[in-house]
Hints:
Radius of gyration: 22 Å
Structural class: alpha/beta
Low-confidence stretches: none
Strand content: 15-25%
Number of strands: 12
Order of helices and strands: EHEHEHEHHEHEEHEHEHEHEHEHHH
Number of helices: 14
Largest sheet: 6 strands, parallel
Distance between the termini: 11 Å
Amino acid sequence: MRILFIANTDKRRRYRFVMEPLRAVGVDAHCYEEKSNLIATFFYGIKVLLSKPKSHIVVLTGGDLRNVIWFLILRIFTRMRVVVRFGGDPITVRRSAQSSFSDAKNIFATIRTQLGAIGSRLLLKHVDGVIVVSVYLAKAVEPLLGSKSHIVVSPPMLLRECKPKRSYQQNGEMFSVLTVTNLNYSEKADGVLHIANAIRSLGQNQPDIAIHFDIVGGGLRLTQVQHAIENMTLPRNVTISVHGQQTDVSSFYESADLFVYHSELDSYSLVMMEAAAYGLPLIVNRWGPFPLQYVEGKEALFYETGNTYQLENLLSRLVKDEKERASLGRAVLHQYQQKQSTLPRGEKLVNFFSELIQ
Length: 358
């Protein structure tokens, strides 16, 4: 079985979350990283797909408009099975991105994003298979599938080594809280400010606690977040730093005492997985797939979305309790190590793809 991955507008190369487990179990899997414009895509696409050796299955990842073009080429010129991978809800995420581009007055990007959502619906109706990152996303996508489409859940995975925490003693003079996020979306920018407000309140109510909050992530709403933080009146025992987009975030994870995340958009949070790989204790808002991702009280602490008072109390609790931080961090690290095994993922995906070509 030979599988070809078509990656377009996939800067983070997330297709590897599927390709690497397949390679680990001996599948002949390759990737074509498509970087041409929409018009050139059609002509290059024909050449790539008709070149030898031919593939049995093509997996489309990345931008939806380009995926529609690739799908048309595949149906017209080949008999290959077509699978599409979604890392997030193709409709909800597109709407959020469209709103962000609209706020930024980027008309072309807004129109393209809207067309992408339409393209996603068309693909879901007609492709042979769909790969999604969570059970939560599978439930959202299933009503949009065609009658002959197959679906499989294959979560993201980390393809680099992380150094887990050895000690849960406070790293420095100030207790270090970290969040890493994508500030292209209002749902995540609002979440960052919610965390900042809870930390500010904690500092005001408990002046004996010194706490530093690192915000890592870029996007269209980065400036909005920076201005909001600059305009906050912080007590002397609280500091907040907005770092923007970083190519290497390992130093932030390694120096943090606690990871806090707030979002109402993710189908599966990769940054929470990264935090788990470093053995960081987690505090997360109770939303969507998050309670399915971690066991409450054992692997993470949850608070009701938007409830600043609950978040402040959980922060205060973990700042003061090294033993609980250690228990949460070690448990979530163990869960990560158990679920990151490559071979079981590869075997599950092989079964999925084998059904498509029977």
